[in-house]
Structures are given as structure tokens and as C-alpha cells.
Amino acid sequence: MAIRLGLGLPQMKQYDLGRDVPAVARTAEEIGFESLWVFERVLFPEPATQGLYGVPGLPWPDSYRSVADPLVTLTLAAAATGRARLGTSVLVAPLHVPFQLARSLASLDAASGGRVVAGLGTGWSHDEYAAAGVAPFEKRGRVLDELLDVCAAVWGPDPVAYQGELTTIAPAVVGPKPARPIPVYLPASSPKSARRLVDRADGWLPAAQGAAQLGEQWARLQDLAAERGRTRPIEVCVRVNAQHGPKPFEGAERPPFTGSAAQIVDDLAAHALDGIEEFLLDLQGSARDAEELKDLAAEVYGLVRAAGL
């Protein structure tokens, strides 16, 4: 079975949001990409009080200095396309009021004819929590659990009612409803988050950091699903943060998904393990503008299909 390919939409500072998002979305769909994705960064701390991903001393990339709002970006893409699924990888759940986010996702799904995939996570940036968090960083898992509860209530039949730590919904009619049940994807970076995924989510959103590591994570997740009695399959979409260069990467220890388009495709082939059927290619950081992003996306897609993946 051929792998499915998704493309990261242009959200970074080198792009014109109103012009480039619809253009890239339309082109990606025409090329054959089956999904379009956004990510979330709400600010760029200067000076940074915390390293990237919480790793001490790891600098934030300059491309994070301006990242467009994910739901605005996805709405522009929805209006410009008719087939591609519309995913978030990921929305940082505790930076959103649960009821409002549930309604926004439902409205986008209704408007797009049932194409939304809700990828949700807890994030890692203390600065982002200080600016926009609805609860302290220490409560991030509880906020995500409440968001999942609120989404299930808001997306379900009326009357909607819910009582939680952050949210109180008196019995009410809440619409519009999603066009179909919105799939929820979660990361699984800890034992607790893995259990949450197995028990509550439709899919998994890992980040590609090497084929061996991905295989080990996938095996552990499948074992956990069997232990907890899950019978339905876990959908998987692997995030690939590619760093494309015009020339092949010649280093002895080439990091995965760096170098030429052909090298990126070689790494995709290595990561296409049994049961892992979709990859989100985020190429926007390697392109100077939308035209270059479209050309690169077309090149990688063509090489993937030519390789029989």
C-alpha cells in the first residue's frame, strides 16, 4: 500500500499569509498530497529563558520569530481546497479555552465537509504558558484531558452539558456540529501520554528522529494497546521536519531528513514501517518563498511515487 503524504502549510515569516497559504494548499492538492498541516508557536522569547523543546542551551530557530495562527492558516487552506484533510500537528491544548477550541474545530470541520484532524498536545514552552496558558504548566495534562472531554461533549448530541475544572456548560444547544466524528491524534512522549492515546485517541503523531527509534516507539505503543484491550487500529502520521539543501549531504553522520530531495526520500523509505502509512512533510523552513516551496514539494512527491513508496 502506498504511503500517504501530507504537506506543512506556509506559516513562517518569509511567506505572505493571505496569498501563499491558498496557493500552496491548491498546488499541494493538485500534486497529490492527501493532507495539509499546521503547527503552533505563539511567541519567540528574547532572550529565551528555556531552550528549544525544553533542552537547556538549545537555541530556538530564527524561523519561529513569526508563526501564523494555525486555525487561521487552516481556514485559508480549507477555502482553497476540496479534498485534502486538514490537520494540526499540534495545537498546544493549554493555550486555548477548551470550549472555544472545540467550537472552532467543529465549525471548520462543518465548513470543510468533514476534513479536520485534531492533533493536540501539551507543549513545552514556559514562556508561551505565561503569555497564553489557561492553567499553570504543571496542570498541562489535566487541561488536555478536560479539552478531550469538552470536545466529546460539544461535538456530540444536544443538549450539551459538562462540568470540569476550567469549563462549565449548562445544558445547551451548541452548533454547528462537525460533519463527521473528528479524528483526534495525540503524541505519546511519556508512559502517561501513551496511555491517554491508547484509551482516548484515534491516532498517533510522532516526530521522525530515526527509523530505529520510530520502530521501537511504535512497537511499544502497539504492545500497550494490546495490554489495555484496544481493538481498533491506531492511525499514524509521522511529522518530518526536513532540512533540504540543493546538494547532497556529505557528512558521515547525516541527520535524518537532511540534504537533497533524493536523500529525504531515502529516509522516508527507511521510516515506512509496517502500519505507518502517512507522513507529514514540513518543508517550509527550507524554502525562500512559496514558489520554491511548491517546487520542492512537487519534487519530493514525484520521487516518492517513482520509488514505489
UniProtKB/TrEMBL annotation:
The record, for SUPFAM superfamilies, names: Bacterial luciferase-like (SSF51679)
- Domain Luciferase-like, by residue range, is 19-242
The superkingdom of the source organism is Bacteria
Q: Which Pfam families match?
A: Bac_luciferase (PF00296)
- Protein name, as recorded: LLM class F420-dependent oxidoreductase
Organism expressing this protein natively = Streptomyces xanthochromogenes
